[in-house]
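Per reviewer request, we include the raw input and output of the structure prediction for the construct analysed in the revised manuscript.
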Amino acid sequence: MLGSLVRCPLSSRNQHQSIAIGISQPFPCSYLEDQQEQLLVIQEERIDARLFERLLTVGFRRSGAAIYKPRCPRCSACQPIRIPVKQFTPSKRQKRTLAHNRDLTWRITSTQTAEQYALYERYIKQRHRDGPMYPPSREQYQQFLFCHWLPPSFIEVYQGNKLLAVAVTDRLPNSLSAIYSYFDPDESHRSLGALLILLQCRLAKLQEKEFLYLGYQIDANRKMSYKRLYRPYQILTPHGWEYCQVCE
């Protein structure tokens, strides 16, 4: 349930407009125990890829068709993070991941398939039984990943004819945005989650994009703290995007 609704300015370079933003009621945080979460939620009827990309630059993200940004009462753990892909260089460990998966192939498609959902269902049931997406369902899958104003792309990874992993990705004018990745739980030794980020970095370079947005870095949550491993990266702070190169 949303509380107050206001119109706020959104400016970038020579573009200026106001957008309607609501704020949710506080609710228990999905990532940090004993914390209350509160979200700013965009209330515009007309959204397109260019406006969404501008919202990414100020820390918003999408879940389905909803565009949101944490604004929590007593916490600022969620830090928007992005990779400047032209400067990105895989680490030694990431190079080993690429080498270890040389037997796999990958492709990009805009087609949603039953095979993709079957893999997502297995992944959630075996890897995230304690998370907000359990139990999985087709309705929840659709509401979480898809929206009418920006059909996502799917990076699919195969071993022969077997689908092993999927990265759901938004393609925007100047960037890619990683929405969600999932993979065969029986192939965890391949580090397929890491491989999917590396493939998104490669795709962004091939398409001459500037950034890959990875969502929110949450240092205090083990499952959400891995994004700093892709360097260099930029973290959005109250002073703007700060460039980070060194290992922390």
